[in-house]
């Protein structure tokens, strides 16, 4: 049962909250229901104390580093954490280790399916392979729904910056699309996958070729986006001439990770997909010639919510009452 | 520990068998080690009786209907069954129901990862989706490693029958390649996937357009293969002219299943892959616009053995000692 729900503006608490009421109270900002004093993060765990439910689970659907900083703390207290927020295990090694150590002590589980690929079964399959004795050698993937959409639609006919604004209008990018183009989001996702595959990289060990750097004249704001048009058209022409397509690819190989624009032959395992599809190829002892490939929508409220629900149900079913 | 190992010619039994010796004894046909009287299937369970190991697991890596007929019987006795043999849950509804009912009674688990896609995580992901509350609407896939190889290599330049013989020589097909071309193997696999997805189809409810029927003049044996060349070239030309490729596709849709040759546009979720790659697209409530796609090598001793090992380890880890 739902005993506490909150966002950055307030929170509601009760013995048995009704999701529809929570939605009205929190999202529609109805002030008589949302109590700002409860939004204090240090008190969230209190809602689960006492004669509460057997499975104490906190679900983090924020993009907040402040909340992610509590993940290890909650796990230490035996509270399961299910999260779509990449900032727990996709940023500093220190924060990831704290989460990992807390999970290793066995009091609580960490549900992180929704942190990469919006609930696509990526982390689960990487862990399943290893549980069966396989060793992961490398991972390569299209890990950003917004960048996937851009390169699935960019045909060199219209300016790249126009397409970015179109993606922004359609809600596929962050409010400032430069956050997507910077590659920072993809850096966090390849870190999460690498760490799950047994390569504990630090955040600054990922080499990121930001798309923003293509606009090398350093123009700011909207001018910056237009500065991308010429270099992107040039890269598109060169790739097309070679029968290839462009993709923004994250790679883990030989213990090193990098993120950036690549040319993909038509037969490359990462060529293909549509819309905001994420696509990840995994090479291992077992999948050494041809990789295991998992593909599907990697962004969206529905699939992200489903990923969170999967993890919560899995935890509830597999841990003792 | 390994207490019994057998093939159709004999078997070995001991308190703690050494795999290397078993291999020499059974595969190299060393008669002083292999005892034909032990190969009696009705006695296999005896090897696991008494003060044996806590987890009693029988691994079936045969292609034998006789062995598959014992699956339900072993499960009823509380012995876990891990199988690469499709004849247990991919043939009659009666046999599948007996296995399903035995598993439902909860005494033992059935590890069937290796029955479709040689251990690719297909069945597991289909079941995981449903466990999270998702409903599968349709499944479409390239489910035969040998047919995938044939259509990944057929370019209309050489006669199709030549390519079939090449695949046979490379060991990608059954000893008689017509068994692959008949579509019977693919029929069994789509039955297994459909039943796992909650659609308990009978075997004769799958419409199979056998490639052999393309050679409609009814010529026998090798003449039959050559009779394929003209109709296949014709279909290849027509597909190429439309910018499409050919694939041998199994589909489950609206509760019905069919298997046969299809044209796939370059952007189709099933276009792509290489070698003997299997590729399966799953549409569900959650994956409604773009499907979840899983791709990877779907044939080979290594990946099949790994799939069997995965299931055995998962059972050993998740069931009480």
Strand order of the largest sheet of chain A: 7-9-8-6-10-11
Continuous helix count of chain A = 12
Number of strands of chain A: 11
- Quaternary: homodimer
* Low-confidence segments of chain A: none
The CATH superfamily of the largest domain in chain A appears as Dihydrodipicolinate Reductase, domain 2
Radius of gyration of chain A: 21 Å
Q: In percent, how helical is the residue content of chain A? A: 25-40%
Kindly identify the CATH topology of the largest domain in chain A. Dihydrodipicolinate Reductase, domain 2
- Give the distance, in angstroms, between the N- and C-terminal Cα atoms of chain A: 14 Å
SS-derived structural category of chain A: alpha/beta
The rough form of chain A would be described as globular
Can you tell me the number of structural domains of chain A? 2
Largest sheet of chain A: 6 strands, mixed
Task: Give a structural overview.
The structure is a homodimer of 321-residue chains. Helix content of chain A is 36%, strand content 19%. The first copy, chain A, has 321 residues and is of the alpha/beta class. Chain A has a 6-stranded mixed beta sheet with strand order 7-9-8-6-10-11. The longest helix of chain A is centred in the C-terminal third of the chain and has 18 residues. In chain A, a hairpin with a 7-residue loop joins strand 10 and strand 11. The two termini of chain A are 14 Å apart. The interface between A and B is large, with 38 and 38 residues. Strand 11 of chain A pairs antiparallel with strand 11 of chain B, so a sheet runs across the interface.
């Amino acid at each position: 049962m739902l005993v506490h729900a909150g966002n950055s503006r307030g929170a509601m608490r009760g013995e048995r909250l009704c999701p529809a009421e929570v939605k009205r109270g929190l999202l529609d900002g109805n002030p008589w229901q949302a109590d700002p004093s409860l939004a204090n993060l240090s008190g969230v765990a209190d809602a689960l104390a006492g004669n509460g439910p057997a499975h104490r689970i906190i679900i983090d659907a924020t993009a907040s580093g402040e909340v992610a900083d509590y993940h290890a703390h909650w796990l230490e207290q035996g509270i399961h954490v299910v999260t779509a927020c990449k900032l727990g295990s996709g940023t500093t090694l220190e924060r990831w280790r704290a989460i990992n150590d807390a999970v290793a002590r066995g009091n609580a589980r960490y549900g992180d399916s929704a942190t990469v690929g919006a609930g696509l079964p990526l982390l689960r399959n990487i862990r399943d392979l290893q549980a069966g004795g396989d060793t992961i050698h490398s991972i390569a993937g299209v890990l950003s729904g917004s960048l996937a959409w851009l390169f699935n639609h960019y045909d060199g006919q219209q300016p790249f910056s126009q397409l970015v604004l179109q993606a922004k209008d359609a809600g596929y990018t962050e409010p400032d699309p430069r956050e997507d183009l910077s590659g920072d989001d993809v850096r966090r996702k390849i870190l999460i996958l690498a760490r799950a595959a047994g390569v504990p990289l630090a955040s600054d060990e990922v080499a990121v070729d930001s798309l923003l750097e293509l606009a090398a004249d350093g123009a700011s704001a909207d001018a910056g986006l237009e500065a991308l048009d010429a270099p992107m058209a040039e890269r598109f022409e060169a790739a097309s001439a070679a029968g290839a397509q462009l993709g923004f690819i994250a790679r883990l190989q030989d213990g090193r990770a990098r993120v950036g624009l690549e040319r993909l032959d038509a037969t490359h395992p990462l060529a293909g997909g549509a819309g905001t599809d994420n696509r990840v190829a995994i090479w291992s002892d077992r999948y050494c010639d041809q990789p295991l490939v998992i593909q599907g929508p990697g962004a969206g409220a529905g699939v992200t919510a489903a990923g969170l629900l999967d993890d919560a149900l899995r935890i509830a079913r597999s841990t003792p009452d």
